[in-house]
């Protein structure tokens, strides 16, 4: 019986493997169509600064509406694109679209996500530069979002690439900070402008002592290193208050704006231009 049980387990395991393979295959095939067709969109979510909650930039977030399966989350398809190599074509689409769209909000930056594989390509800087130049966008208006995984696997090489990007004027943000191999001691060796604190820590603010302690120590250490901080996933007034008191320089989350199409994002930007804000719409947010 033991032997039979063992065999069954193997069979179940194989079946699960098959299913996940099949799922991957479906996503991969669908993505190929999506890139060629009209199924992708970039949405933009405001990043605000702490004092007057004015928008200083937008994060570009990829959306895929599959005619066969409906909307699919980037958290699902990006890792598959990354493994299959489709991320190269996808990333090219994202970069071109983001550079084109950001010309509608001069003076604000666009923050673009790059997966480890994209960042690690041999000619990343040249590739980026060529597109930025062609779109006639200033590097200072472009923020590169990378994760810890992208830089801590080959730190010397990553440090060189980041230094080069920095010297060309790009902003560099370390995304999802706190979820990977975070080491604030390593952080000081990289040319970074900003740390984005993962929303899992912001969620805990207000009801979980540990989250509050972690957020406040990240904020203080990052400040000491001269870095900006963006708190991700800010949804409530209470979280916003606590972050301001901690000294967090920037925030992003549904409280300030959900990811939206470029035209809507541009309209929201008009609201937050100096002098055009009557002080009523946003003051309500912080009570
Ligand atoms: P991320 O870069 O950490 O992006 C932040 C995620 O948090 C986004 O999820 C955003 O919609 C969500 N979010 C923002 N504010 C709130 C909030 O107040 N509450 C909650 N619950 N969620 C909030 P999204 O758009 O589903 O993207 C998931 C991830 O997919 C991104 O995480 C990023 O890692 C990846 N991704 C998205 N677009 C791209 C892209 O163009 N290229 C690459 N390489 N990765 C991308
Ligand atoms: Mg991001
Ligand atoms: Mg993030
Ligand atoms: Mg995140």
Automatic annotation (TrEMBL):
Protein origin, superkingdom: Bacteria
Residues making up the signal peptide according to the UniProt record: none
Residues of the EAL domain: 24-273
Protein name (database record): EAL domain-containing protein
Organism (species): Novosphingobium album (ex Hu et al. 2023)
